[in-house]
Design goal:
Chain lengths: 168, 168
Amino acid sequence: MTPNDAIRLFAKTLQNMEHWMDKAAAYAQAKSFEVDVLVQDRLAPDAYAFNRQVQSACDQAKYAAAYLGGKPAPSHPDTEKTFAELRQRIRTCLAFLESVQAKDFAGAEDRKVSPPWLGGKWLRGDDYLVHVAIPNFFFHATMAYAILRHNGVELGKMDYIGSLPAKD
Amino acid sequence: MTPNDAIRLFAKTLQNMEHWMDKAAAYAQAKSFEVDVLVQDRLAPDAYAFNRQVQSACDQAKYAAAYLGGKPAPSHPDTEKTFAELRQRIRTCLAFLESVQAKDFAGAEDRKVSPPWLGGKWLRGDDYLVHVAIPNFFFHATMAYAILRHNGVELGKMDYIGSLPAKD
C-alpha cells in the first residue's frame, strides 16, 4: 500500500461520507426535521460534534497528502455550520487531494514529518502514515458515521466501505 | 506501508483496546456498576453491541493476516459475553497475528483474496488491505471506543492512538 493508495482511500471515504449525508438529508425530510440539527450532535458532551468530526477527517487527509507529497497544506478554516457548508469542505479537501499526484509521493516513506503538535520531534513519513494518518482519519470518519447512525439514519457497512475493485 | 506494517498496526490498536477496557473497568468500579453491562451496549438498536465490535475488529485483523500471509485462518467462535472473555479473545487474536511473520507477507500484494462473502469474486491482496481490511478494522475499533465513550468512560485520542515512534 503506497502513500498514494492511502490518499486515494481517504478520498474515496470522503466521497462515501457525502453519500452518508445524502441519506441523512433524506431521513430528515422523511421525519420532517431540519438536517442541520445533526451538525452539532455528538456522542458525549466532551466529544467532537458532527461538523468537527468531518473537519478533522478532512484535515487528516489534507495533512497526510501535504506532508507525504511535499506540498504546503492549504488553510481550510473550521467555520462550517450546515450540511451544505460541510459538503463544500469535503469538496475543497478532495480538490487538494486530487492536486497531489502519485509522482509527488516519491520518497515519501523517508520524509521527515514534523507537525506542530509533535513539539519539534518528527516521524518518518511511513510512520506518520501508519501511526497517525490512517488511524486518525478512520477514527473521525467512523465517528461522523456513528453520530448519524445513532440518530437513526439508515446506514449500513457498505455505505461506509463503498465500492470494491472485485474481479470475476 | 507494507502488509506487515498493517498487521502490526492492527495488533497495536488491539492492545490499545485492552487499555480502553482497563479504563472502562476503573470507571465501573468508581461508579459502582458491573462493567459487563457495557458488553451488550450499542449505539443504535440494529448496530453491533460492544462485544461484536471487538470480535469484528479481531476478525478483520485475523483474516487480513491469514489471507495476506498465506495461512489458514484459525476459528475464533463469537461466544464472549464478559470483559474477561473479550480480553482473552483479543489475546488469542494477538497470538495469531504474532505467528504470521514479516517473511510470510512476501508477494502479499499480488495474492488472490477470495473471502466467502465475495461470492466467488476476488480482490488483489493489496486491494483487500486498502478497501476492506484497513477501513473495516478501524470501523469496528472506533465503534468499540465510541460505545465506551458514549457511556462516560474517560477516553481521549491518545488512548486510541497509543505510542508514537517519534524521534528527537
